[in-house]
Design brief:
Blueprint lengths: L1 E5 L6 E5 L5 E3 L14 H14 L23 E5 L3 H6 L9 E5 L4 E2 L5 E3 L6 E2 L2 E7 L16 E8 L2 E2 H5 L15 E2 L4 E3 L10 E6 L2 E7 L7 H8 L10 E3 L21 E6 L3 E9 H5 L1
Parallel strand pairs: 4-16, 6-12, 7-18
Antiparallel strand pairs: 1-2, 1-13, 2-3, 4-5, 8-11, 9-10, 9-16, 10-13, 14-15, 14-17, 17-18
Amino acid sequence: MKLLRVGPEGREIPAAVLESGIVVDISSLVSDIDPTVLSRDAMGRLRHSLSARADSLPTVDLDSTRIGTPLSGIGKVVCVGLNYREHAREAGMEIPSEPVLFLKAADTVVGPNDCVRIPPNSVKTDYEVELAVVIGKKARYLSDSEMPLDYVAGYMISDDVSERTYQLERGGQWDKGKNCETFQPFGPWLVTTEDVKDVQSLGLRCEINGQVRQQSNTKDMIFTVAEIVRYVSQFMVLYPGDVINTGTPQGVGAGLDGGTFLRNGDVAVLAIDGLGSQRHEFRDFAAAEG
């Protein structure tokens, strides 16, 4: 299934994309796309209801309707740094022996096409296309004999927006450059696991103003999705509705000659095979407020 939420910010309703490509309002089936619908049983019931009633559900015109973040009630966003071999090389850093972890606050999350605000005084706001993993079942201290992907409900596109000066030049933790408001677009939809045949063979792409900056494949991950879920569960409990950003490939602005960062009016288009695409404009904080 492809699940999404549509409507004005704070008043989104749940929707789904049918195999025909038609989008339908599913608010008569579930109250929201939130942690309560992410379990295997709940997803199975929703899938059955959607199949039985698809023809009778109201349609949604995405051309005239805002798409919100696909999931409400996100608990935490766990991020993995330096998880693509080529990205580590362009950053001039050694391949990590263990995943590099940091957190983004849930209040950074916005819809896939919402405006992203460049913070006041920022000179190095950057883009990062990433595969986001949505947790569907509580995971804690997973053992080597367990199947980590059984704890995953689905996948989304993420732009792990970063301010590199705050992240790398101001001391302390990376979190300072990762948690500015609107720095976490997700979507357009949450694609459930049965519709992603091989999560380690997905093409990723990011364009800035029509120019391809990032183009890679999840095959280049240093740590696979399964390894990441198991690893993270050793350090924190993962709950339904938590999200893991699994790292970005080469081609970020900080990796280009001299650094090429985002300015007011720049437009990013991000895509991942089978997960759709998102498009958002970056605007100076004052311009976005106006």
